[in-house]
Amino acid sequence: MSRLPDLPLLPWAQSQAFLLLGTEDAVTLRCRLWDLKPQVQITALYWGTRFASLRDISPLLIAIDGPDDPVLEHYLASAEQEQGWLLFSQTSAIKIASHLRQLLFVRTCAGLEVSLRLSDAAVARAIFSGQENTEMLFGPIDSLVLPDRVASTWVKLTPSAKAQRPMPQPYVLTANQDLALDEVAVRKAALRVDEHLDRHFPKHAAIRFEQRWPGVLARVKEAYARRFTTQRELTSFANIFAWLDGSPLEQHREIVALLHNSSYLLPYERVTGAADLAEQWGSARDLTEPQP
User: Fold this and answer.
1) Which partner from 143, 281, 291, 292 sits 20 to 30 angstroms from 46, CA to CA?
2) b/e per residue, 84-112, with b = 16+ CB within 10 A?
């Protein structure tokens, strides 16, 4: 069940609404949308770009006819996953898609070219929510409405002014946008860790998300600081503390030794080995503790 509230009041009567929706299977999604609404208007964002050959995973720009549109209802059922967001504009889908395609490939402050998964609500928020270049970034878009899974809310963004200059190509991220995208990557990794812990550790699942989230995020940041960076390494690092279940880490010298050992073992080998030891300890403790 989604923790997001109902949508806020939105300018349905004043602007045309669109949904930018991400997918890993555009063919199946298109069929599903046509079943829901045979006259649905869909524009593939990757069409006409360097990603044209990846049309099967292209984000789709979909016209929404109002708050009762069945496509909108379909999106809202899983909006908490942040794989799409709403936008409002006075212009056509073609012009909006053309504008958004300019943000598919950007350069970092260091000059590295990167591609953006614009349909990801957290990525979009990192790009559009700053105070710099908002008129260029929004272009023909009047406002965005994005789900925030962590805060359990909807975020509405508007430009500080109407666009008066074209967007340079490629667009160069500001330092703040660079930093925000780094934070998005950490946040996304932490959400995956939380989902894992929620599935496999009942004590974790019993704690409300808003109460456990700060600890999960801090644990993932600690893992990054220890040079554990892959999702498997981050999950294994979190597993250690879930199995120890409050037992101080420093009391487990073999685990500490693996976490701090930087000799011949790879980071993956060290952290998974430490997680295995923690699981052995936790399982043995569970067998010896009296059952309630």
Assistant:
1) 143
2) bbbbbbeeebeebbebbbbbbbbeeeeee
Instruction: Using the predicted structure, report yes or no on whether residue 14 has a pLDDT greater than 90.
Output: yes
Q: Are 214 and 207 in contact (CB under 8 A)?
A: no
Quick check: 268 and 233 in contact, CB under 8 A?
yes
Distance CA(50)–CA(72), nearest Å, equals 29
Say if residue 147 is in the same domain as residue 33.
yes
What does the alpha-carbon distance between residue 227 and residue 222 come to, in Å, rounded to a whole number? 9
Domain count, the chain: 2
- Asked if residue 94 lies in contact with residue 48, where contact means CB atoms within 8 angstroms, the answer is no
Instruction: Tell whether 169 and 284 lie within a shared domain.
Output: no
Instruction: Determine contact, residues 18/96, Cβ cutoff 8 Å.
Output: yes
If you write DSSP's letter for every residue of 75-90 in order, what string do you get? HHTTGGG--EEEEEES
User: Using one digit for the tens of pLDDT, what is the confidence trace for 136-148?
Assistant: 999 999 999 999 9
Number of H helices, E strands in the chain: 11, 9
Alpha helices in the chain (DSSP H): 26-36, 70-76, 93-101, 121-128, 134-138, 175-200, 202-205, 209-225, 231-244, 253-260, 267-288
Residue 225: half-sphere exposure toward Cβ, Cα within 13 Å: 6
Amino acid at 165: R
The answer to whether residue 275 is domain-embedded is yes
pLDDT digits (tens, 9 = 90+) for 149-204: 999 999 999 998 776 678 889 999 999 999 999 999 999 999 999 999 999 999 99
Percent of the residues in the chain that have a pLDDT greater than 90, as a whole number: 87
Phi first, then psi: what are they for 150, rounded to 5°? -70, -45
How far apart (Å, rounded) are the C-alpha atoms in residues 27 and 53? 13
27 & 123 share domain: yes
Write out the two tokens for 80.
């908490």
The residue whose two tokens read 């059952």 is: 291
